[in-house]
Design a protein that fits this description.
Layout lengths: L5 E2 L2 E2 L2 H13 L5 H12 L10 H13 L42 E5 L6 H11 L11 E8 L2 E10 L5 H7 L3 H7 L3 E9 L8 H21 L5 E7 L6 H5 L3 E5 L17 E7 L4 H7 L4
Parallel strand pairs: 6-7
Antiparallel strand pairs: 1-2, 3-4, 4-5, 5-6, 7-9, 8-9
Helix pairs in contact: 2-3
């Protein structure tokens, strides 16, 4: 093999390619999907919750196929790709009567986890039409929350798998490349945080950040069979100052380079983001470096 081929952290060895070619030869009537399922089972390529890493496996095999290392059978069908063929969420009508009260006047608050529930349609609509970035289908592990006050939605959180490489974050933790690849799943990324524009409650944002950090790890473990020990988010420095994160005791870790994850030019192509982090345990470094679960 002349060129090293890596996909989502998995580097193909000569033995890997030989094994896949034998798998294809021994199952001449199998579809690409069936082959990926068998390969996941042979390699025990599963998520921590036991689900097969089928999508990653198919992407890995397709990259090898395009590089000429293996020959996959012809495609039998083209499944819908929600990342490419994304339908815009339907805009749902909600009560937009202004809420002007103190923080104590809005309690009690209900933070409802809505991923894979009927309420996810409301979440997607709120993010699409009321967040400046709009809705984007999350990648990897993910949880979505709506905050309700007297049955009215007032805020939303989206959490997903953390980006693979953020220089200032990795230096703060002390991660090497190999350790990061093993333990990145113990971190979650706050990809969206929305307080609806007609909700004007002083200190609400930092208060909600404090509430969500108390339950997020246990919610994550219930769904994905592992806890999380550290949270991170990016704040666009051209638009915001990260005030609510600072007020909620998040720590500023540094800035992104503005080059993106697939950069090959070493030139800034997008706005600089401030990286903020929040540990969920006192021993977060040990847990992120050693993979401890307690």
């Amino acid at each position: 093999m002349h060129t090293e081929i890596t996909y989502r952290g998995k580097t193909a060895t000569a033995e890997d390619i030989e094994f896949i070619n034998e798998l294809i030869a021994n199952n001449p009537n199998d579809s690409r999907w069936a082959l990926s399922i068998k390969l996941c089972k042979e390699w025990n390529w599963v998520q921590l919750n036991g689900a097969l890493r089928d999508m990653v496996c198919r992407g890995f095999m397709l990259k090898l196929h395009r590089a000429g290392c293996i020959t996959l059978p012809p495609k039998r069908r083209t499944p819908n790709n929600p990342f490419v063929n994304r339908k815009k969420p339907v805009e749902l009508e909600i009560d937009q009567t202004p809420i002007n009260v103190s923080l104590f006047g809005i309690k009690p608050l209900e933070i409802r986890q809505v991923h894979n529930t009927e309420s996810v349609k409301l979440f997607n609509s709120l993010i699409e039409y009321h967040h400046y970035l709009g809705y984007c289908h999350p990648v990897g592990e993910q949880l979505k929350y709506i905050v309700f006050a007297e049955k009215r939605p007032i805020a939303c959180f989206a959490w997903s798998s953390a980006p693979r490489h953020i220089g200032c974050r990795d230096r703060f933790i002390g991660w090497t490349k190999n350790v990061r690849e093993k333990h990145l799943h113990y971190m979650a990324y706050n990809s969206r945080f929305l307080i609806l524009s007609w909700v004007r409650i002083p200190h609400l944002a930092s208060h909600l950040l404090g509430l969500i950090t108390r339950t997020l790890s246990s919610d994550w473990e219930k769904k994905y069979n592992h806890p999380i020990f550290f949270l991170e988010t990016f704040v666009d420095t051209e638009c915001f100052g990260g005030t609510c994160y600072k007020a909620a005791n998040w720590q500023y870790l540094g800035n992104t380079t503005g080059r993106g994850k697939n950069d090959k030019t070493h030139k800034q192509t997008r706005s600089i983001k401030a990286v903020w982090g929040y540990p969920l345990s006192k021993n977060f470094r040990e847990q992120l470096l050693c993979g401890a679960v307690k």
